[in-house]
Amino acid sequence: MNCLVTGASGYIGSSLIKRLVKDGHKVKGLFHQKQPSFLEKNVEYIKGDITDISSIRNVVKDVEVVFHCAALVKDLAPKDDFYKINLQGTKNIVEACIGHDIKRFIFLSHIQYESHQKSGHYSISKAMAEQYLLDRYKNDNFPVVIIRPGNVYGPGAAIWVLIPLRAIEKDRISLINNGNGIFHHTYIDNLVDALTIAMQKPNIDGETIDITDGDNSTTWGQYLNALAQMLGKPPIKRNMSKPTAMALSKIMMLLYSIFRVKPWVTPTAVEVFSNQTKTSIEKAKSLLGYEPQVDYKTGIKNVENWLKSEGYIP
What we know:
It is a single chain. By secondary structure, this protein is an alpha/beta fold. It has a domain at about 1-150: NAD(P)-binding Rossmann-like Domain (Rossmann fold, 3-Layer(aba) Sandwich). The chain is built from 11 helices and 11 strands. The protein has helices at about 10-20, 55, 80-95, 120-140, 160-170, 190-200, 220-230, 240-260, 265-275, 280-290, 295-310, and strands at about 1-5, 25-30, 45, 65-70, 105-110, 145-150, 150-155, 175, 185, 210, 240. The strands form 3 sheets. The chain has a 7-stranded parallel beta sheet, with helices on both faces. A two-stranded parallel sheet has the order 7-9. Helix 3 (about 80-95) packs parallel to helix 4. The mean pLDDT is about 95.
């Protein structure tokens, strides 16, 4: 099939492109400023800005499936940027699709950990984009499927591998509630499996599907201490209660707003690391026939081998 992947230079987008090429699909990869570090052969890479519809109006020409992976995924950024990129950018991609024979529009969202009232601008903007897409499906039969992954990790991952690894290395990390929050690990290959299945599975338009490795037993304490062990460091001893961590994060956010002192913990991070909400993949199994092929034990070993090969750990 002819596919467009937005966010082509990101971890998920680039991993998805590799799989699509391997499976014999024709691919366009849309990136903004940062060119992908590795360019796949036979992929048409296009530089464009999803917040400027004039720069992306023609990228969907001859495209059958759109994977919209581009997003601003940060705790810290100007408020308006989240809505400009995650909401308006999504609207622009959809508008660019109008008049073309798009068979499936797959939107990469994320599992919601916290209530809407406590959400940061990233979560709120993604939720608003989801609602916009579902309204387009309901009112215009726009063929959207929303995929919500958990914490995506694996070889090459920055957010859930390299960033916490560096924090542990610098002793700038603390467990919250003794690290008993649920780590919704989602191995990159498992997520890509789900995305590629969703591109052709019939009768799933308008569905929102959660994707994880199907394990609600692994805690953040176990995962972070596994990274610490890889570094040759002792188990993490620093610990805070959730109320203490939340209060500290709000103070740090205030200091950031005034003095631009980068916080080492944010309210969003506190919610994620203290999460106690279990996630089910039964809907993914039922609708997609999804079965995670890489379990946590294998995934963490693959991460360790990659970190060693890249020189991040001894």
